[in-house]
Amino acid sequence: MRSTFTALLATVVLLLLNLPAFAQTDSTETKVYEYADQMPVFKGGESALMTYLSGSIPYTNASVSGLVVVSFVVDDDGTINDVKLLKGLHPSLDSVSMQAVRNMSGYWTTGVQKGKQVKVRYTLPIRFSHNSGGSPKENASKQEMTEYKGGTEAFIKFMKRNVRYPQQATKRGAVYVSFTINEDGSLSDYKIEKSIEPALDREAIRLAKLSDGNWIPSVRN
Q: Beta partners for 121?
């Protein structure tokens, strides 16, 4: 059967274009990094994160499908703070998604910059689909989720090696691209989920297409 990646979590290309500086400063003058030498990782990897979310977020409104995007800071002790809703879908789904994120304190490795543990802001997209049938937890148990070959660290290295800030771009921020990973590992159905400006959107799509062939397709049954 054709197995495209349409379960609870959507794989999203996160294009960090806060160049040349990758850090921001909060009111206490403590740096919160948007990008670090070693990014925070959910303990157990992407599959463990998906399993956690699948078991923690009840699908309370099966008539709604789409993307919830939550931003949060992984503190230098692994706790979760400053949880923000960047893109909502439905009040009940937004609420349970944010609560699930808050409950992830202690589940993350800390970010590291120049050998020192630092605070890092992380952005997590959560995909809800009423077409997949059953609860998110049930779907997760039947399906091995897709992932980038080599895991999160390999994906970050790919982004660092290939991202280019367009000369015609005038803004900075994060562009989100969703896409389908087909049963043969090829990509299709590229879509801008969060836009900044055309030049950066095109660069995000270029990066997504460039990653074609580097994804492990999902497996069901």
A: 73
Tracing tokens 């040349």 back to the chain, one arrives at 20
92-132 pLDDT, tens per residue?
888 889 999 999 988 999 999 889 999 999 888 887 776 54
Beta bridge partners of 68: 126
pLDDT tens track for 159-173: 888 888 888 888 877
Residue 108 φ/ψ, nearest 5 degrees: -115, 145
Phi, psi of 97 (to 5 degrees): -65, -45
Burial class of residue 104, CB neighbours in 10 A (0-12, 13-18, 19+)? buried
Beta strands in 93-162 (DSSP E): 111-113, 116-128, 143-144, 147-148
pLDDT at position 81: 93
Burial 75-101 (b: 16+ CB within 10 A, else e): bbebbbeebeeebbbbeebbebbbebb
